[in-house]
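Q: Could you write out the predicted structure for this multi-component system? I'm mainly interested in how the pieces pack against one another.
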Amino acid sequence: DAGITQSPRHKVTETGTPVTLRCHQTENHRYMYWYRQDPGHGLRLIHYSYGVKDTDKGEVSDGYSVSRSKTEDFLLTLESATSSQTSVYFCAISESGDTLGSYEQYFGPGTRLTVT
Amino acid sequence: AQTVTQSQPEMSVQEAETVTLSCTYDTSESNYYLFWYKQPPSRQMILVIRQEAYKQQNATENRFSVNFQKAAKSFSLKISDSQLGDTAMYFCAFTGGGADGLTFGKGTHLIIQP
């Protein structure tokens, strides 16, 4: 299994509070991603990073920000949590396909976030 | 933008049978990569099989194989000799490569009956 951990694994928070989720990898992979999973939607990309301090928006980025100050850590912040952000959040990592050829992504165990 | 469609929300088969999960996609790119992921009740996302669009040969991993039809933009997953442990959600996913994220279908819930 790829060395990817997420913390916390479960969190309940109140509407309007800030929340930060952490993804940590030990694989030294270049690319890191945050997805959310909701019933009926599969997984959708929130933000991604293609290097330290290099990030970009995904399909559902509104209300989220990210930071990557070290190769191994990718943080997802909900500035002011809303009930619509209740979801399961997955982090994923990938290495360049230039040498590996396939751009496959490996996923962390997920964080279940409930906003009340 | 790419889209991925899985038209079977749920399927149920008997143990040891063969089952095929459907996936179609839409893209204007000429080179891309396709994947099937499995998500058991533990919630962990597990890579099952990958296919590079530039390869004509269909990928195979033990009991799992794909039927990749590039012109039809179809990427189905065949599971042979199905086992109880194959019970899970299965997601089809697409990427154009580089730093691009994955675009997922909505998933197929596969149930293997004893």
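A: Regarding packing and overall arrangement: Chain A has a mean pLDDT of 92.
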